[in-house]
Task: structure prediction
Amino acid sequence: MKSARYKLLLLLPAVAVFVLFLVFPILIVLNESFHTFEPGRIGSVEGGPLTLANYAELFQPVYGQYFAQTYVLAICSSAVSIVFAFPIAYCIARAEFAWMQKASISAIVGLMFLSSLVRVYALELTFGSTGVLAPLMSIMDINTNSRLYINFVILAGLLQYCIPMSILILIGAIKNLNPRLTEAALSLGAPALAAHLTVTIPLSIRGIVSAFLVSMTLGVSAFVIPLILGRGRILFISNLIYSRFSEIANYPSGAAISIVMMVLALLLILVMSRLATSLERA
Amino acid sequence: MLSTKERLNAEVTVRTKALVSAKPILSKRRVDSLLTVAVTAIIAVTALFLLFPVVVTVLMAFDARDYIGPFPPTELSTRWFGKLLEDTYIWAGFKTSLLLAAATTAAAAAIGALAALAISWMSPRWRDFVTTMFLSPLVLPGVIIGFGLLMFFAAFNQVPVFLKLFAGHLIITLPFTIRMTLVGLAGISQTLREAALSLGANERQVFFTITLPLAKNGIAAGAIFAFATSMDDVAVSLFMSDFQTYTLPLALTTLIKSSFDLTIAAAAVALMGLTIVLLIVLDRVLGLERAMGHGTNRIR
Result:
């Protein structure tokens, strides 16, 4: 019917773009990460000996802090967003009127499409040290310049993305679920909470895991949120990579961090999808 | 299928019976009404959390005062929008962004549609593998893509900044156009094609009169995702731009970090308007629910 050559011809432009602008660059990053850095130079020494020093350096506690910082906040935001998103998604998926469902989904999609800078700026304007809530914070004796507070503002920034996204993913999962199962539990006399805990949630576990995974992926690769809301005092791994490029031009070190970050991100996806499959079988 | 359902039903019955037979600490009605209150509270808190910053930004954009004063503003004016119109720094970024997003969208939609068409003709095993490969930029941190591209372009002499930005944006938008076109193609019933073929149309005629018109909406939805992604990117663009050629998000990032001027709030309100326009178009071409079912992973 369709010849294989014809198919390949259609794929060619996309493959070319991917090889040129994704595969090559990542290979270059990988190569760079094994080279030595000479202060004062941009990029590594060409033809120099290969080294693992850039990776070994990452075992210093300073770097551990950046990774811990990123992962702890990403895990917090993913967990919190699931807890908040699930009941909301359930209400929307089981809404009585079609217009209510349509209106809430439109609002959530609107929030997702809103420029990330608008959202980050809105948070800065609201929760920042000169923001509109600053007087309230000083009444409540909260120091808006403390590290803990900045952590909270970054968490709020991550949640602004993760909650709407988790809601949308969970709506899909809950809609695929047979409502009669929960109804059966209720009609047999189970309290609503118990019915949801033992029936609705276990049956939508795949959706929950995928919402968690997407939130995590978003959290660990977040760039603008910590860049602006972190006020230079709290950096995520992404920001660290950027500063390796912009501040000290230590490309080999930035490359090594990039590779580690990429491997961790892919590992996370692998582990989570395995987890989803095994949970579903259980 | 039926047996699993029955099994589940049986399981539900057993589990609920076990629950009901346990001695209740609180009466069932009490627990249920508590749950309703808790869920209502969660919805209210979340709505407030998600919408309050947006409302603050909109109101502050119309603030008549010179400084960021107590909220809400005492007097309203459109002076910040006037300042926004005169701000050459923001306008230059906006022009670059618009041009870049238009070029990226056109290229990504065309390349993505072709690739999706080829993918849809593959056997299921190949289809899954190739799709996963093409969607991979969605899970890769933007900073890594930007950093890699920076070093890639450093190998060449003097690549124009706009071209570098274009390449970066193409790689992060292609997953959306490929995926949405696949969604559009999957919605086309095979019987339509077969009917046309059996009525004597050739492959080419079937493609241009059946497949393409029906896949059009998926392609358009992908284009909207691509446009929105391109207009919003910071992580990749930051590595590609210089002081002369920069995008709107980069200009705004610099301004947010360096000044407390409410012109940014006015720009934010203008961008909200753009978002609403994009949403209306997306709803028209594909329907929001259908589009979001397949496009939810906007990672950046």
About this structure: Chain B touches chain A through 105 residues (CB under 8 Å).
